[in-house]
């Protein structure tokens, strides 16, 4: 039986870093892969070879991304983040470590009143991740 099509998809807009971001994200999470990539060709609006439109999955959830051909005065903000429930201590440590290397730690991995193990990090692209161990 085919699974139902995902109705709401997170859409991430980059300016030349979409493929690098997808490679990072799919390397962090198990059961993750780049599904499709359409690239700008010569004489198109975006830089040739950059991502016109792509889809990737992380643990069964599909995401879309692009490299915008238009420069914007905005980027990602921590006000919206991807919330990840990690199943093991090893997983939360691994998932926190990679984005934190070149990113920004908003809340270090630790014990908080609302969670025994939680961390909040923004990766080098500006995408914000809240990571929680267990339910």
From TrEMBL:
<feature type="domain" description="PhnB-like">
    <location>
        <begin position="6"/>
        <end position="131"/>
    </location>
</feature>
<dbReference type="Pfam" id="PF06983">
    <property type="entry name" value="3-dmu-9_3-mt"/>
</dbReference>
<dbReference type="InterPro" id="IPR009725">
    <property type="entry name" value="3_dmu_93_MTrfase"/>
</dbReference>
<dbReference type="InterPro" id="IPR028973">
    <property type="entry name" value="PhnB-like"/>
</dbReference>
<dbReference type="InterPro" id="IPR027259">
    <property type="entry name" value="MTase_demethylubiq_bac"/>
</dbReference>
<dbReference type="InterPro" id="IPR029068">
    <property type="entry name" value="Glyas_Bleomycin-R_OHBP_Dase"/>
</dbReference>
<protein>
    <recommendedName>
        <fullName>PhnB-like domain-containing protein</fullName>
    </recommendedName>
</protein>
């Amino acid at each position: 039986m085919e699974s139902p099509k995902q109705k709401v998809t997170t859409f991430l807009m980059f300016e030349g870093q979409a493929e690098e971001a997808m490679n990072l994200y799919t390397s962090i999470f198990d059961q993750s892969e780049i599904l499709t990539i359409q690239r700008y060709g010569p004489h198109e609006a975006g830089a040739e070879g950059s991502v016109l439109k792509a889809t990737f999955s992380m643990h069964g959830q599909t995401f879309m991304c692009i490299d915008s051909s238009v420069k914007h005065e905005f980027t990602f903000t921590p006000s919206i983040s991807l919330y990840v429930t990690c199943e093991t201590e090893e997983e939360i440590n691994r998932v926190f470590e990679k984005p934190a290397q070149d990113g920004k730690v908003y809340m270090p991995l630790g014990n908080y009143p609302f969670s025994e193990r939680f961390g909040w990090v923004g990766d080098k692209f500006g995408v914000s991740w809240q990571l929680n161990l267990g339910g």
